[in-house]
Structure formats: structure tokens, C-alpha cells
Write a structure and sequence with these properties.
single chain, alpha/beta, Rossmann fold, six-stranded parallel beta sheet, four-stranded parallel beta sheet, 13 helices, 13 strands, elongated, Peripla_BP_I, ABC transporter substrate-binding protein
Length: 342
């Protein structure tokens, strides 16, 4: 009986020893996994709303990082946050990134960039910010100049030539005189573009008719208020409007009012034409600047650049629906798009 008890005690001791030996090993493995995760560079990506142009910019940004050795899950960890079109939410997202001590913030759109800049400034943290799809960084208050921002910001601007867009309208709709613009009054970039449009209109003998909104539910009423007064609707690079482009073109085409966009996503959503930029390339360029920052360069010393390449996009279905004849010299060089038109 004594021998049996001794045998049981010995076995128990052996089992405890084995379990005790395994336990530290398990903790080491888990700790190692955590260490591997903590070794990843944290990048916060903030975007006002999801629509084609902005999504392409984000895709280009991530692709550039990967091409230069910064791959998600291997060297970097990306925290992507979408504000769902709500500007106050951009501030909440920015504050989260600051509290999380991310290594870098990528801000897509002007409101997201302003929120990130303000959050880092309030917290007195010099977290680098790379921007894209921001129309005028200086007017937005996040850069002192494009050559050297003098702040913690670098990146790319999606500013386009209003004159180029108006020239396209004039060539395709030669009798157009009254140009309508529906825009989000809460977006600084939209306010800037409306001002630019009014200034440029005199050179084309255009009259600008505007209607401001603060949320997407106001779009139908805003359009109704001006459709009887305009010959063409021009859509600026306004994120709230872009997310509703299909609704806008449908309502305008019922009244036979052509819609001209400011980027290819608008044309894919049914707009007649635009002279637009490639948002994937824009985002890619931003990603390249992000790599420079991650490798030690001061963002305030890296120029904020604008894309010089523009492409004419034409929606064949919209042209057909509205019986528009596009001049051959424009049509021959344009990239043709179909769809987005009922």
C-alpha cells in the first residue's frame, strides 16, 4: 500500500514537472507572437467615404508600399477606418490613430487630412501625415507651401484644371451658358472649386448656378432647385456628390441635362465626359512618399505634388442617351466607358 502511494506521488511529480516545463515554453511562444506583431509598423489610413476614386487612391497607396518592401502583415500593419461620409467622425478616427501612436497616418480627402493634422497638433505629437485626394493643402491649412509644407504633412493633391473641364464642356455642348454645381458646403475642397469655377466662368461666358447641400438626402431637392435654370451640371471632386453620382445623373437625364464630371469615376457613374486624373497613380505616388518618410525623411521637406497627366473619358451610353455629338478630335483620343446610365 505504501509502495502504491509512493508510486502515485512519483508519477504526480513527473507530470507536474512535465507540465511545469511546458508552461514557460508556451508563454515564450505566445510572447514571441506578440513581439512579432509589435514589430510591425503601424499605419493608420483614414478615408472620408468609400467611392471609386478614393478607393483607387487607397489601393495605389498600399501597392506602392508593397512594391517597396512594406507589405501588410509582414512589415506593416494597416488600420483602415472609413468615416462613412461623416466629417465629425474623421476627427474621432484621427484621435484614435494618435492615441494608438501609429508610425504614420495616410489621409485620403481634405476633411480626413485636416482632422489628422489637427489631432496631431492638439496632442503635440509629430506623427507624419501623407495626404492624397486633397485639392488645396494650403487653403486647407495643413501646409504652408507645396514645395515644403513646413508641417508634418506631405503627399499629393488631386487639383485639376477647371479651365480644362470648361473647355471640354464648351466643345461638346457649344450652346451651354448656364452651368450648375451641386456641392457639399462642409467640404473645404468643394468650396475652393466653386470659387475657382466662378472665376474661370467669365473666360467661357458661362454663368454659374450653385446649390449647396450638407448631406446626401438633400441632393434631389438641390438638383430640382436648379435643373430648370441650367444647361449642364458640372460635378466637382466632392466626395459626398461622388458617392451619389448614379442618382445625380439619373435625375438630370430625365430632364435631358448633361452631366460633366471631374474624374473618371463620375463618368463610370453616368456622366458624359471629363478630363480626369488616374487616382491609382495618385495614391501610388503618395505611397512612395510614405516610404521616404518611414525611412527617415522629414515630411515637411518632401514636396506635395500634383499629377500632370490627364485623360479624357467619355461615356458612350450617356452620349447616346442625350443624342450628343462629340467632336472627332476629342472622341478619337478619349478613353471610352459604358454603363451607369439607365
Amino acid at each position: 500500500m505504501v509502495e502504491k502511494r509512493i508510486s502515485i506521488l512519483v508519477c504526480s511529480a513527473l507530470v507536474s514537472g512535465i507540465l511545469g516545463g511546458c508552461s514557460p515554453s508556451s508563454k515564450t511562444t505566445l510572447a514571441g507572437q506578440k513581439e512579432n506583431q509589435s514589430d510591425l509598423i503601424k499605419i493608420g489610413v483614414t478615408q472620408l467615404v468609400e467611392h471609386q476614386a478614393l478607393d483607387l487612391a487607397r489601393e495605389g497607396f498600399i501597392t506602392a508600399l508593397k512594391d517597396k518592401g512594406y507589405e501588410e502583415g509582414k512589415k506593416i500593419k494597416i488600420d483602415f477606418e472609413n468615416a462613412q461620409g461623416d466629417i465629425p467622425t474623421t476627427q474621432t478616427i484621427a484621435e484614435k490613430f494618435v492615441n494608438d501612436n501609429v508610425k504614420l497616418i495616410a489621409a485620403i480627402t481634405t476633411p480626413s487630412a485636416q482632422a489628422a493634422f489637427n489631432a496631431t497638433k492638439r496632442a503635440n505629437k509629430n506623427i507624419p501625415i501623407v495626404i492624397t485626394a486633397v485639392t488645396d493643402p494650403i487653403q486647407a491649412g495643413i501646409a504652408k507651401s507645396l514645395d515644403k509644407s513646413g508641417t508634418n504633412v506631405t503627399g499629393t493633391s488631386n487639383a485639376i484644371s477647371i479651365e480644362g473641364q470648361f473647355q471640354l464642356i464648351k466643345r461638346i455642348i457649344p450652346n451651354a451658358k448656364n452651368i450648375g454645381i451641386v456641392y457639399n458646403t462642409s467640404e473645404n475642397n468643394s468650396e475652393i472649386q466653386v470659387k475657382q469655377a466662378i472665376e474661370a466662368a467669365t473666360n467661357f461666358k458661362f454663368n454659374i448656378v450653385t446649390s449647396g447641400i450638407t448631406n446626401t438626402n438633400e441632393i434631389p431637392q438641390a438638383l430640382n432647385s436648379i435643373l430648370g435654370k441650367i444647361d449642364v451640371l458640372y460635378v466637382p471632386t466632392d466626395n459626398m456628390i461622388a458617392s451619389s453620382i448614379a442618382t445625380i445623373t439619373k435625375q438630370c437625364y430625365i430632364k435631358n441635362i448633361p452631366v460633366f464630371g471631374s474624374e473618371s469615376g463620375h463618368v463610370k457613374g453616368g456622366a458624359v465626359a471629363t478630363e480626369g486624373i488616374d487616382y491609382f497613380k495618385l495614391g501610388y505616388e503618395t505611397g512612395s512618399k510614405a516610404v521616404e518618410v518611414l525611412e527617415g525623411k522629414n515630411p515637411g521637406e518632401i514636396p506635395i505634388t500634383k499629377t500632370k497627366e490627364v485623360t479624357t473619358f467619355i461615356n458612350k451610353d450617356a452620349v447616346k442617351k442625350l443624342s450628343i455629338k462629340v467632336p472627332e478630335d476629342i472622341s478619337s483620343k478619349a478613353e471610352k466607358i459604358t454603363g451607369g446610365v439607365d
